[in-house]
Design brief:
Largest sheet: 5 strands, antiparallel
Helix content: 10-25%
Number of strands: 12
Shape: elongated
Distance between the termini: 48 Å
Number of helices: 3
Length: 181
């Protein structure tokens, strides 16, 4: 296993085209022409074993997911001196995935088309990771609950975010109803 952010940054540093991937006992090597990166392999601890996928699931396009997170991300990070819920509340409602973030200074709500049922509070660090890892993905992604984790999968990438145990406050009374077409 290698760190996903290390692998992603090395792969993005290479130009479009074929990348050769090889491994030996402790190193994964990426090579494209004369450009070569080596990443240390490490064993996956048993406590982080592949989660059993048994909970609620929602499916949507990868670009729509990244765009959704981008629209609420500024409100997902708490101020230095203001305690708040740090993250994005994801909730599937009427064929849409609604993302809400509040940081005691601002509130952001956005939605996009999605199929399925899901409700989770995604920590702000995981919001940044998902935007980075899935940012160039053009395929669909699925978000699935697995105990106290949210599994985001798209293409060949699987990201597991440990969810916060906090309850997201009900701010619906503060949000005016939508108007217009």
């Amino acid at each position: 296993m290698v760190r996903a952010d290390d692998l992603l940054s090395r792969a993005q540093a290479m130009s479009d085209g074929e990348i050769s991937v090889s491994t030996n006992e402790r190193v994964l090597t990426l090579q494209q022409g004369s450009l070569r990166f080596s990443l240390a392999l490490f064993d996956m601890p048993t406590r982080h074993a592949e989660p059993e996928l048994s909970g609620d699931c929602v499916a949507l396009s990868g670009p729509a997911f990244v765009s959704l997170l981008g629209r609420v991300a500024p409100a997902a990070y708490p101020g230095i001196d203001r305690p708040s819920v740090a993250g994005v509340h994801l909730r599937a409602v009427d064929g849409r995935l609604v993302a809400t973030a509040v940081n005691n200074v601002s509130m952001a709500v956005a939605s996009t088309e999605a199929l399925g049922a899901l409700e989770a509070l995604l920590p702000s660090a995981a919001v940044g990771h998902c935007r980075k890892f899935f940012g160039k993905l053009t395929t669909d992604v699925s978000l699935r609950m697995s105990g106290s984790a949210l599994v985001v999968a798209g293409g060949r990438l699987v990201y597991v975010a440990r969810l916060t145990g906090e309850a997201f406050p009900d701010f619906s009374y503060m949000v005016p109803p939508a108007t217009g077409p």
